[in-house]
Amino acid sequence: MTFHRRIFEATYSLIAVLFLLAWLRETAALRPLRDRPSSGSLPWGDEQLFLRRDGNDPNPYSRWNITGTYRGRWSFAGTSNGSSKFLDFGKSNGMSVFELASTPTKINGVHYVQGAVIFHDVHDGGRDLGVAQMRVEGVYIWPFKQLRLVVSSGSEGELLQEDHFMSNPYHLLGAFSSQVFQESPGEKVRRKKMLMSDMEKHCNIEIAAQVSRISSCQADGERDCYHLEGLMESPAVEDDGECFSPILLNATSLNVEVYYNKAVNYTLLVTFISFLQVLLLIRQMEHSNTQSGAAKVSIIMIGQQAIMDAYLCLLHLTAGILVESLFNAFATAAFFKFVVFSIFEMRYLLAIWKACRPLGNGEGWEAMRRELSVLYSRFYGILLGGILVMYEFHNFLRPILFMMYSFWIPQIINNVIRDTRKPLHPHYILGMSVTRLAIPLYIFGCPNNFMRVKVDRDWCISLIVFMGFQALILLLQHYLGSRWFIPRQILPEKVLLQ
């Protein structure tokens, strides 16, 4: 016992040090977005010098910086049906996103702007593209608050722009809230590039917009918010009509740092929850450190929780890869989930398997290895099969989550069948029930979550009641007996061995 207690104390210390390092690392992760250089020709430091040079200019527009992400709506001017030589917008209006990066030029009052315009609900010959993205460049004349953009066909800054935009935390929002398309990403990207190339050859797409500042948005963050309103026209190169009808555009800038900070705070929450779950698992392993104690625990219950943590590990790691500026934060959360899943839960799973496994006569290592390989094959087969099921039935995510959060039910049934008492520590039951609820309640219950998921209070209340009911039955089984809710008349008689 002394040796095991020393191991647990060392584990406590190691987890505490790792949690402290993770907190310091994620706090430092706030710096890349604020200190990120722009994708233009001049860094932000030169822009500050440019603005200081005009510090005596009383013009209030001299310090306007329109770099950022803008989200708004597009609609066809007049009664157009949205016909186009290259695109079928399908609707008369929809959502649009602007990604702009502005840098000063040698001409006083003129900023060079490059970026992209993204249209949603776009079709190509009946096939849904999801979005159509156009690279744009132009100038922003801040004394007159005028923005002029044209479609850019050059590829010199394409890689730089892609790195800048894909590292933007705003793109993470769509990754969580949009549906998964059946078409492969590589094929979709190639088709979009061919379509945009044809448009760039045959169309002169021009955007003229007026820029205004929104004073009511300044309290939400350190940066000002701006509003764009203008018109996009597309006269053909050979004067044979328009590529598509004029489109009215309006968009308002998003405070990306707010989303970034929310994402980092979310990863801190996941890291802290993982730390608590490790402590709860250690407490439970101490509670059932004998072979008879481990045999009372349901292997399905532990395996189901291990699969949930494996999914969370993969999900956070994928999110960190998709958004480079948030990689440190999400990779730390994924690492802690990996520790919970691979080190503690899998170790406890093997201990339960060994305790429940009957000893065979003359059974050697080869037979044990075969059974162990079958156990691992079933576990990882269910893990991969669950990914395919969630991919095919992603529209039924909430019922699937309800099934995953029924992990206490196998233990309840196991207690009734075997008439086992006190297999789980009460702290483990309560702690795991609360910590497991934290992530789904944040996603579906927090109105200010960074994933743009619509709040569903009824579903959250149903999940809390469902989990609370399971935990209540386990606690009553712990104190009143595993079969307390079954009438004695239908229980089998106990045989006392003398």
UniProtKB/TrEMBL annotation:
One of its GO terms (cellular component) is endomembrane system. Residues 255-489 form the SWEET-like domain. It comes from the Eukaryota. It is a multi-pass membrane protein. It is found in: Endomembrane system. It catalyses: S-ubiquitinyl-[E2 ubiquitin-conjugating enzyme]-L-cysteine + [acceptor protein]-L-lysine = [E2 ubiquitin-conjugating enzyme]-L-cysteine + N(6)-ubiquitinyl-[acceptor protein]-L-lysine. Its main location: membrane. Pathway: Protein modification; protein ubiquitination. Coiled coil: none annotated. The chain crosses the membrane at residues 263-282, 294-319, 325-344, 379-408, 428-447, 459-480. GO terms for biological process: proteasome-mediated ubiquitin-dependent protein catabolic process. Pfam families: DUF2921. Residues 1-29 form the signal peptide. Its EC number is 2.3.2.27. Keywords: Membrane, Metal-binding, Signal, Transferase, Transmembrane, Transmembrane helix, Ubl conjugation pathway, Zinc, Zinc-finger. One of its GO terms (molecular function) is ubiquitin protein ligase activity. This is RING-type E3 ubiquitin transferase.
